[in-house]
Amino acid sequence: MTTDPALLARITALEDERAIIRLQTAYGYYVDKAQWDEAADLFARDATLEIAARGQFRGQDRIRAYLKCLPGLMPGTVFNHMQLQPLITLNGDTAQGRWRAIMEVAIAGAVDMVGEATYENAYVREANVSGEPVWKIAKLHCYVTYYADWQKGLAGGGVPMGRELPECPPDAPQTVDYDSFPAVYVPPYHYPNPVTGRAWSA
């Protein structure tokens, strides 16, 4: 086994990046199947969650409560959430990541939608139930780009993104005021341009 500090640091970084990708991918699969407890277990104790315009939920317990307000999986439903294009930035025991999600949502006879969203997330290394340090989601912020009716397509206009749920009020209002398609909003990039080094500027 190598003892070269530079090589060990590179190996550690690759392992951390792979662990974060695995973590976020697991989140997508659990959401697919409405496995809300499994999804909530991926969050840090003091994590925050913000999806569309439903407000911000703070702490793992509140995130779990919010997720359990969402519909359950049953015959005639599809809730696919494909997590794509990861760009991970490591910083010791914390990290940031940008993702693209493609969403298919259907309830037979009632709902038939396709959507896309950008995630700007944060991650933290925190002890699991066995006391071992593992990566967890520290912040999940899902910016919805569009929802559209499958039959009408995007040319038929967008379907409004989700707003606050009366049965599950948030702990705070949404932190960024924006609208989805046909409006245009570019979520800020957490990373500088990898070639020029310039930080994102709206």
What does this structure look like?
The protein has 202 residues and is an alpha+beta fold. The protein has a single domain (10-156), classed as Roll (Nuclear Transport Factor 2, Chain: A). The protein is 20% helix and 37% strand. The chain contains three helices and six strands, in the order H-H-E-E-H-E-E-E-E. It has a six-stranded mixed β-sheet with strand order 2-1-6-5-4-3. The chain is globular. The protein starts with a helix and ends in a 53-residue tail after the last strand. The model has no long low-confidence stretch (mean pLDDT 94). It comes from Novosphingobium ovatum. Pfam families: SnoaL_4. Residues 13-140 form the SnoaL-like domain. This is Nuclear transport factor 2 family protein.
Low-confidence stretches: none
Task: Choose one word for the global shape.
Answer: globular
Please indicate the percent range of residues in DSSP E strands (runs of 2 or more): 35-45%
Task: Could you tell me the CATH topology label.
Answer: Nuclear Transport Factor 2, Chain: A
Sum this structure up briefly.
With 202 residues, this protein is an alpha+beta fold.
List the helices and strands and how they pair.
Elements: H1 5-32, H2 36-40, E1 43-51, E2 56-58, H3 60-67, E3 77-91, E4 94-107, E5 111-127, E6 133-149
Parallel strand pairs: 1-6
Antiparallel strand pairs: 1-2, 3-4, 4-5, 5-6
Domain SnoaL-like: 13-140
InterPro entries: NTF2-like_dom_sf, SnoaL-like
Protein name: Nuclear transport factor 2 family protein
